[in-house]
Amino acid sequence: MSVPPSNHQPVTVDPHAIQYGVSITRETHDQVMMPTYAPMQMIPARAKGSWLWDTTGKDYLDFAAGIAVSVLGHAHPDLVQVLNDQAQKFWHVSNLMTNEPAIRLAQRLCELTFAEKVFFGNSGGEANEAALKLARRYAFDNHNEKKTEIVAFYNGFHGRTFFTVSVGGQSKYSDGFGPKPGDITHLPFNDVDALRGLFEEKGDQICCVMLEPIQGEGGVNPASRDFVQAIRECCDQYSALMVLDEVQTGVGRSGKMYVYEKLGITPDILTTAKGLGGGFPIAAMLTTDNIAKSLAVGVHGSTFGGNPMACAVANKVLELVTAPGLLSDVERKSQLLVKKLMELGARCDLFSAVRGEGLLLGCELTDKWKDQAREILTACMNEGLMVLVAGPNVIRLAPPINISDEDLKEGIARMERAVEKLANH
Ligand SMILES: Cc1ncc(COP(=O)(O)O)c(C=O)c1O
Predict the structure, then answer these.
(1) Span 6-69+328-424: which CATH code?
(2) pLDDT band, very low/low/confident/very high, at 425 (cuts 50, 70, 90)
(3) Cβ–Cβ < 8 Å for 102, 276
(4) pLDDT by residue (tens digit) across 248-265?
(5) CA of 12 to the centre of ligand 1 (A)
(6) How far, in Å, is the centroid of ligand 1 from the Cα of 248?
(7) 3-state secondary structure of 118
(8) Closest atom, ligand 1, to C-alpha of 217
(9) Are 210 and 156 in contact (CB under 8 A)?
(10) Which of 53, 283, 296, 409 holds its CA 20 to 30 A away from the CA of 403?
(11) Are strands 351-357 and 241-245 parallel, antiparallel or unpaired?
């Protein structure tokens, strides 16, 4: 049985401890925070590797990784070191100046991908906002002002800015905010006929197609190879840009740096965030020299984009993720996890399918557990396992990609106990 690392015994913190002269509890959150989120009752105190401890000292195995962010686990010593080192130098200069960590990171991202130019932001939504603006602006500069149509897909998720929720394929996130940005068409995901039909009807007006190679929030639905190749063909034929949102799938989670490498296509624009900073906020939009010209001086910007602290950490994340042995082991770990999940699924009549790539997996619940993803998540938390959901019928798992086999097995054992308790309840 795997246990939390012994050299990192949890610190027990009294949840009612006086901090900064104020007594902080979970209830304080509701008093002072906007009601935007409904966080769990526990409050994290510290974390190391794949483990996290709350303020009462209870341990949790982290199969959520801060929603697919902490690719290398928590408090990786090399990341802590590089963050400390950069903190001693300078934290922020804005884009009135460039900085070495940002240049190095852009250079490395170009080496690792199809890209020739990089724009830095701070979140996935911000990178996608930039990508959508770039696609519209590129069409305006190179084609005509009527080429504004954006094609996207139902159940897609691209962020929470007004443009990105409007392009995302769940109207519950974009309704109620007044008039939405126009010229956005949503199609069913993986439907090649619908895609080709739309291009035949109005291909000349389409400036870009935006998609996630695996819809993360929308249920962990992988795009089929045929589908992405059809998108590439249609975009080429009608001079539209293919925009790939790899915010959740990127930086090694699939076993490749980016999923497009597995799909036999190259996008025109790619967005990456989450794992890129290993937990430190940073995002990037990648594209070619030619397309990048449309974001000339003054057309777009971000005060914190390219922040040296974030870029220094991201450089180290890329170094560690691409070090020999790590990415090539993700597929093996994935197979181990899928096997254990299928066995558990069969024993408890829990999962009807397990899908995804690498260490981004979605477990579809059987009819017996229909609509109970949230209850299972809570039961797992009670047993000391952090998981995610993707809708009411999918348990989503995104552990750190350097997690040990023992911790993967321990996580499954905790999930089994959680499900048994829930079933007996
Ligand atoms: C595919 C995808 N795109 C964009 C986003 C938005 O990223 P952020 O929350 O960093 O703005 C997310 C977040 O879950 C995502 O999964």
Answers:
(1) 3.90.1150.10
(2) confident
(3) no
(4) 999 999 999 999 999 999
(5) 33
(6) 7
(7) strand
(8) 16
(9) yes
(10) 283
(11) unpaired
Q: What residue ranges do the domains of the chain occupy?
A: 6-69+328-424, 77-321
- Which CATH number is 77-321 given? 3.40.640.10
What is the amino acid identity at position 360?
L
229: enclosing H helix or E strand = helix 225-237
* Lateral strand order in the sheet of 206-211: 117-121, 283-287, 269-272, 241-245, 206-211, 149-153, 184-187
Q: Taking the model in full, what pTM does it have?
A: 0.95
* Helix extents (H) in 249-325: 260-263, 289-292, 308-321
Out of 274, 276, 282, 360, give the residue to mutate to test ligand 1, the one with the largest number of ligand atoms within 8 Å of its CB: 274
Residue 221 is inside which H or E element, if any? strand 221-222
* Residue 94 backbone class (left: φ over 0; alpha: ψ -120 to 50; beta: rest): left
Terminal Cα-to-Cα distance of the chain (whole angstroms): 26
Strands 206-211 and 149-153: parallel
